[in-house]
Structure formats: C-alpha cells, structure tokens
Amino acid sequence: MIRNAVESDLPAIVEIYNHAVATKTITADVEPVTVESRLAWFHSHSSRYPLWVLEQESMIAGWFGLRMFYGREAYRSTAEISLYVSPHFQRQGVGQTLLTHAIAQCPTLEIHTLLAIAFAENLPSVALLKKFGFEQWGYLPQVARSWECDRDVIILGRKI
Known about the structure:
The protein is of the alpha+beta class. The protein has a single domain, classed as Aminopeptidase. The chain is about 30% helix and about 35% strand. Strands 1-2-3-4-5-7-6 form a 7-stranded mixed sheet, with helices on both faces. Strand 2 (about 50-55) and strand 3 (about 60-70) form a beta hairpin. The protein is globular. It starts with a strand and ends with a strand.
C-alpha cells in the first residue's frame, strides 16, 4: 500500500536512506543522517511535493519523494525525485511500484517534468529510470567527491 508518509515513518525512512549512504554509490551523503537532522526535510514535503511510502508486510519497503527543482517559481512544474528501497525488499518491484505511482500522480500535482540526479556508476537506478522513459539530459564529470573518489553525475529527465 502506498500512502503519504507521516512523521512516525521517519525512523524507517532514515534507516533505508542510511543503508544507501553505506553503499557509497547511491547518495552524495558520506555520513549517516539522523531522524532529528531530517525533520526539516520531512516537513518540507507538502501536498504539492509529497513524500510517499510503500508498506509491505507491515514494514516500510521503500519511499519516494518529490521536491521543487531549483526553488524558483518558474520551475514549479518540474520536480526532482528521490527513490529509495529497503535492502529487505530490493529486486521485488518496490521501486517500479513507487515510480509508477508517482508518474500517475504528476498530472494532479501539475508536475510536467521529472528530474533524477544519480551517480553515473549507479547502474541499477539508471536502468530503472530509463525503463520508465527517463533519458539522460546532462552529464557532470567528476563533480562529486566522496570516499576519496571523484564521481560523475548524470541528470535524467522525463516529460509527463
């Protein structure tokens, strides 16, 4: 079941995110985050730019967030996505389910463009996004430095 996230979901959301931090290839954070440090981020989501969770087996299997791209009014109809799946539910269609839901909700949210920013080496995420019609719109060589390694970043986009 996909639903809007509530504050009591934040520990599970943080746990899933911190697993991604530990992999060193999914997110640009290099240290784990805390529930307290993510409260403002959580509350920045709204009915216009929601944060959803997918519950399976009474657990948060994954989460998907939208946020306004670049923070200026002219970009109001463009949203940057975040998609993370619990390690216990990977390769079970959670990412596909969340992405399908988000794309279906975009017209109601008046979002016409979705953007995803990913490390170029994050091949599973890039493949999932391309499966859903995202195309590479940008390439930023060696703009991220983490774990003593320069990383290339790609920008993927999809018009709704």
